[in-house]
Amino acid sequence: MNVIHRTSREDLEQVISKKIVDAIILARSGELTIHAGGGGRFGKIIE
Known about the structure:
By secondary structure, the protein is of the alpha+beta class. The protein has one domain (about 1-45). The protein is about 45% helix and about 15% strand. A two-stranded antiparallel sheet has the order 1-2. β1 (about 35) and β2 (about 45) form a beta hairpin. The protein is elongated, with a radius of gyration of 12 Å.
């Protein structure tokens, strides 16, 4: 969880795609909309 919450954008961009980095940054700021999963289904990011 430390990676998700504290790693800098620059460090994340060295190892994962920009699209994933953008989603992580939006989630940190509370601006990412997620449709919760359940009943054997994964949650989804709403764009």
